[in-house]
Design goal:
The complex is a heterodimer. Chain A is mainly beta. Chain A is built from no helices and twelve strands. In chain A, strands 2, 5, 6, 10, 11 and 12 form a six-stranded mixed beta sheet that branches. Chain A has a four-stranded antiparallel beta sheet with strand order 3-9-8-7, with no helix packed on it. Chain A is globular, with a radius of gyration of 14 Å. The N and C termini of chain B lie far apart (36 Å). In chain B, strands 2, 4, 5, 6, 9, 10 and 11 form a seven-stranded mixed beta sheet that branches. A four-stranded antiparallel beta sheet of chain B has the order 1-3-8-7, with no helix packed on it. Chain B is built from no helices and eleven strands. In chain B, a hairpin with a 2-residue loop joins β5 and β6. The chains are: A mainly beta, B mainly beta. Chains A and B meet through β5, β6, β10 and β11 of A and β4, β5, β9 and β10 of B.
């Protein structure tokens, strides 16, 4: 079955540092890939997505590129802020199903940014 | 503003008791879902419902029950049969689960409910 593997956290960075959170996946078909973010006390929010190979998703300074050859979708940000402190989830869905029941999540990576 | 409301946010249960977690949405979404989140694990699907009066088991349905009598509501009951109920529970909804192309933008999540067995 489909699976998502994320780097373990917590990740602790100083403000303005460069961020990379690794995510790799296994899937039988051609999945869409997502990054969700969960701020303290809130539900999950979609951060960015990519629906086919070589697509780059971007939002709020975060970027991730869909790499089919390495089955990866690593999240990056050039300069993190304290407000970026949250838990980040990598997820995939089987294409053309349109149902959340097929959304497979990684374990989540907690990011803590300090001044 | 439209959204998903889960309650209670924190709940303590004695062993052997059933508890019900509420999930209400005013987004006019068709499908609703319950996920369980445990430390060090991803979200795992418990139950989902694509239309009123119909629901399906997810990956870890044992020890849980749901109902979908109204489009807006999808309560989850954690029964005494659930061996390890202490977890964070997330409810989600999506407008049209039958769309041909997936769009993660259409998934909305609630803020979650923490259940602790004491």
């Amino acid at each position: 079955g489909d699976s998502v593997t994320q780097m373990e956290g917590p990740v602790t960075l100083s403000e303005e540092a460069f961020l990379t959170i690794n995510c790799t996946y296994t899937a039988t078909g051609y999945p869409s890939l997502f990054w969700y973010v969960q701020y303290p006390g809130e539900g999950l929010q979609l951060l960015l997505k990519a629906t086919k190979a070589d697509d780059k998703g971007s939002n709020k300074g975060f970027e991730a590129t869909y790499r089919k050859e390495t089955t990866s979708f690593h999240l990056e940000k050039g300069s993190v802020q304290v407000s970026d402190s949250a838990v980040y989830f990598c997820a995939l869905s089987e294409s053309n199903t349109g149902t959340a029941s097929k959304l497979t999540f990684g374990t989540g990576t907690r990011l803590q940014v300090t001044l | 503003d439209g959204g998903i409301t889960q309650s209670p946010k924190y709940l303590f249960r004695k062993e052997g008791q059933n508890v019900t977690l509420s999930c209400e949405q005013n987004l006019n979404h068709d499908a609703m879902y319950w996920y369980r989140q445990d430390p060090g694990q991803g979200l795992r699907l418990i139950y989902y419902s694509q239309i009123v009066n119909d629901f399906q088991k997810g990956d870890i349905a044992e020890g849980y029950s749901v109902s979908r009598e109204k489009k807006e509501s999808f309560p989850l009951t954690v029964t005494s049969a659930q061996k390890n109920p202490t977890a964070f529970y997330l409810c989600a909804s999506i407008k049209d689960p039958g769309r041909a192309s997936w769009d993660g933008n259409t998934i909305y999540f609630g803020e979650g409910s923490w259940l602790t067995v004491v």
